[in-house]
Amino acid sequence: MPTEAHPDLALLGLLQLVSPALPIGGFAWSQGLESALELGWVCDEQSLGDWLEGVLEDGPGHAELPVMARLMEAWQRGDEVALVHWDRWLAACRESRELAEEERQLGASLKRLINSLGLWPEQPTLPPGAGYTTAFSAVAVIRGIETRQALLGFTWNWLENQLAVACKAMPLGHTAAQRLVERLRPELIRCIDQALVLEDDQLGPALPGLALASAKHETQYSRLFRS
Description:
It contains ten helices and no strands.
């Protein structure tokens, strides 16, 4: 699988991949947060920080991040069996229709974008209906991004998206959002340190509250984000 070898190109490629300007539609989804706001589970800066810390620890920290490390290794080896296995494993972790559709649609949008730039490799092939995490891992390998840096970028993108949702859907100013960035930056690093040492039998998200919020979002009377 071809990669870009120059470290500066890799860094710029990562910045491009996690930019809010990347036209794949990530801004349209709230990942259950809008419903948590409506239900009163999240109501201010402190509770939002608590929510995000919990989601990070029990969600990406035990699912997307360790699996992305495995996916990147599989892309580098050309191991299509492992790619299919981990892509399906992540799909099985999506506990609501909304979360499943977000993963599939962002994955398809990212693949279309990379195809349009002439960067998608012929081999190995992307599993049919592959999700966003699988597509992101492929682009990270194409760009020559190191695994740890790819995980940092992926997690940073998740945090920025969640804070953007909060700024739109609740009384949260941009300065408060930056305070939460400062609070959560060390947590991102700790979460990645943990993700990189987890064994296969230690993986799996534990987010019943987020799953319930995401399911309730489908029937929420007034909403800004997709369900």
